[in-house]
Amino acid sequence: MGLDNTQDCSRSVSNIIIDRSRLKRNNYILSLLQEGQRVGAITSKKAYQIQGEIMQVLQQLIRKYTQGKSTSVTSETAEDIMVSLIYAMDVYVLHFNNPEEAIVHLNFESIKDIHAKGVELLRQYYEDAKQLYQEMKKID
Question: What's the maximum distance between 2 C-alpha atoms anywhere in the chain?
Fold first, then answer.
C-alpha cells in the first residue's frame, strides 16, 4: 500500500461508524462486509468484487490441495478449504484495533493479500505458542 493509500485509509476510518453488535466472531470478515455495506463504507460493487476474489483464492487453494491435477474436489473438502480460507482472513482483519480500520483494508487490499497475511499471522501465533510451551516445559 502506497503513501497515498495509507493517507486515504486514515481519512476513511474517521468517516465509518460500525455497529459492533452486528459483527460475529465466527465469519467475522463476512459480517464485517455486510456491516460495511449497511453503513455505506463498502459499495455493492466492491462487495461483489471481494466475493469474486474469495472464489478465486478458493480455486487456487483447491488446485494447491490437488497438486494441480484437478479443480474438482468433494463438496466436503471444498467446504473445509473455504472454512480455512475464511478463518485466515478473519485472523487478519481481527488484528486491527477496530472494525472501521479493518473495513478500510478490505477496500484497499486484495483478498489474496488478506488471506496471505492471515496465514502469516497464524504461523507467528503458532511459533509463539510453541516457544511458550518450550519455556513452560523448562519450568516443570
Answer: 56
